[in-house]
Amino acid sequence: MRFEYNIEAGNFTKAGDASSSFKKILKQLNVDSQIIKRIVVSLYEGEVNIVAHANGGKVICEVDTSRVNIQLIDVGPGIPDIEKAMQAGFSTASAKVREMGFGAGMGLQNIKNNADQLFISSEVGVGTKLEIIVNLPQN
Amino acid sequence: MKLQEVALTLKARVICGQTRLERDVEAVFASDLMSDVLTIDSEKLLLLTGLVNIQTIRTSEMSDIKNIVLVRNKKASPEMIALAEENRIVLMECSYSMYKACGLLFEKGINPVY
Ligand SMILES: Nc1ncnc2c1ncn2[C@@H]1O[C@H](COP(=O)(O)OP(=O)(O)OP(=O)(O)O)[C@@H](O)[C@H]1O
Ligand SMILES: [Mg+2]
Question: What is the pLDDT of residues B2-21, one digit of tens each?
């Protein structure tokens, strides 16, 4: 199954809409609530990053019996130094983003902690792509 | 501690979830930083926050946080209340500062997250 959502840059009213929709789907699919939390927290961090740092993008969520694969693809400034961006505490968030309760430089690290796999690629001046994989238990 | 007692302790006004005050709270986390809240993994958590916007509720939705107290006399917007209701979140408003609200709950013996 494949679900696609568009993410608007700068729109904090809508930030989280994609995560919220996908969470409802995962619940309907009877995915374990602990695993749902890991998936949607990762997705939400990525979604807020697109709203906060990029010029818009999209999210593609794919679910099969063994795993959930999420791609967050944005058009934007890109990340010049991914290793640095991954460090807890590093943030270039604007005052507006901080006012919304974000911008502590913890998001990417939190995605890494919640996901089974995280791949980040980015080109400065073009955009950023995150791929988040969470395995589903087999029974 | 039951939410009912939390409300009494903080002299809080229940904005949404009036019928769910029998719910038990085992730990409190206090933060105005949603980045921080998203790293917490605790059951039966109560969030105390002075950050009052739609992302406060969104963050709680994603983190499975079902109980929120807004401190410093901040008021929830209609959008926040609607989203809280949709997620069966109990939302309260309290006029105390964060420090006072935390102190009162700590005194009653509710655990911190860490
Ligand atoms: N999609 C993106 N496009 C451009 N830059 C990004 C993107 N995502 C992250 N970054 C850069 O990486 C930094 C660290 O991101 P991270 O999510 O860890 O923290 P944050 O978003 O600044 O704050 P927090 O996530 O704690 O609210 C950001 O401040 C920004 O400079
Ligand atoms: Mg972030």
Answer: 999 999 999 999 999 999 99
